[in-house]
Specification:
Blueprint: E1 4-23, E2 29-49, E3 55-58, H1 70-82, E4 87-93, H2 104-119, H3 126-136, H4 140-145, E5 149-152, E6 157-160, E7 167-172, H5 179-183, H6 197-201, H7 210-216, H8 218-228, E8 234-235, E9 242-246, H9 249-257, E10 264-271, H10 275-280
Parallel strand pairs: 3-4
Antiparallel strand pairs: 1-2, 2-4, 2-5, 2-10, 5-6, 7-9, 7-10, 8-9
Bound molecules: 4-diphosphocytidyl-2-C-methyl-D-erythritol 2-phosphate and adenosine-5'-diphosphate.
Adenosine-5'-diphosphate binds near residues 64, 69, 98, 103 and 179.
Length: about 290
């Protein structure tokens, strides 16, 4: 019999700081970062097809053929790992900008792994799902685990963390930044000394991609210099999304109304437990 899960959240993440501490022999970069979730994201609906193993996704994303979409790749990976012959019909409501440093594609993939693992009764434990997730991208495991985390390695070594959960103004300068292009740039800072939690707590951590990305993208420079005039404005991941914490929703809302012309913005809240895990009542703290 066909089973369904509808309107599941695929939340955005932000990197509260991002340091690049080295480069591995395979070209991937060693990071230190602090991930937090936002109550803003894509939505996904799933219906299983017990007698048809195809994975059907609609709508297709512009410029991303279905077989390259992380949702379809996640579903196929779970089929391969478990040997299930079931398929699924998946609907995507895309809200997060692509290449926005908010991890939208990675979060879609994680929501797919968690939803289909439940609907297909394949029952892989979360740590095993997180190991599969890493094959899809460095950012996918944190969305599977579902707790805000201090991350090291390429982003897969995760320690639960409880940073403050302020309101944020999220500002979208409207450009797409390719993660691979930033990591491949000769001018990127790649030798930050390792830091500890105390360094973050005392304001000594930033985003090592920021100087380069500001130089390459004038719109990001414009948005970030405006946000830094308001408070602790920062860039998420390799860009392009920008954020600034506020003590109240009203303050964030007032800032939103004065945002630079031509830029989209949202007021949202930071969460140390993923909205997906809250929605499905997955016990993250027992991991
Ligand atoms: C930088 C971060 C920080 O959260 O986020 P985004 O800006 O993409 O959101 C992530 O580590 C991104 O993770 P993710 O977007 O999953 O990256 P992947 O698909 O694994 O990698 C894309 C490309 O970036 C480079 N890459 C990625 C991660 C890493 N630690 N070192 C790298 O050098 C590689 O060239 C890789 O081919
Ligand atoms: N479901 C998906 N949603 C968004 N992007 C996807 C998806 N599947 C594959 N991609 C590809 O991954 C790239 C990075 O997407 P995204 O995760 O949104 O940005 P970022 O890694 O900067 O946070 C996109 O430009 C797109 O080519």
């Amino acid at each position: 019999m066909s089973r369904e899960l509808n309107h599941l959240p695929a939340p955005a993440k932000i990197n509260l700081f991002l340091h690049i501490t080295g480069r591995r022999a395979d070209g991937y970069h060693e990071l230190q970062t602090l991930f937090q979730f936002l109550d803003l994201g894509d939505r996904l609906s799933f219906r299983t097809t017990p007698k048809d193993s195809r994975i059907l996704l609609s709508p297709e994303l512009p410029g991303v053929p279905a077989e390259q979409n992380l949702i379809v790749r996640a579903a196929r990976l779970l089929q391969q790992a478990t040997g299930t012959r079931q398929g699924a019909v998946i609907q995507l409501q895309k809200r997060l900008p692509m290449g926005g440093g908010l991890g939208g594609g990675s979060s879609d993939a994680a929501t797919t792994l968690i939803a289909l693992n439940r609907l297909w009764d394949t029952e892989l434990p979360l740590p095993e799902l997180a190991a599969l997730a890493l094959q899809l991208g460095a950012d996918v495991p944190v969305f599977v685990r579902g707790f805000a985390a201090w991350a090291e390695g390429v982003g897969e070594k995760l320690q639960p963390a409880s940073p403050p959960t302020p309101w944020y103004l999220l500002l979208l300068p409207g450009c797409e930044v390719a993660t691979a292009a930033v990591f491949g740039h000769p001018d990127l800072t790649r030798n930050s000394p390792p830091v500890q939690w105390q360094d973050y707590a005392e304001g000594r951590c930033g985003n090592d991609c920021e100087a380069l990305v500001r130089r390459l993208y004038p719109e990001i420079e414009r948005g970030l210099s405006w946000l830094k005039g308001l408070g602790r404005g920062a860039m998420s991941g390799t860009g392009a999304s920008l954020f600034c914490p506020f003590e109240s929703e009203e303050e964030a809302q007032r800032a939103l109304e004065q945002r630079p012309e031509g830029m989209e913005g949202f007021v949202c809240r930071g969460h140390n437990r993923s909205p997906l895990h809250q929605h499905l009542q997955i016990q993250t703290e027992t991991l």
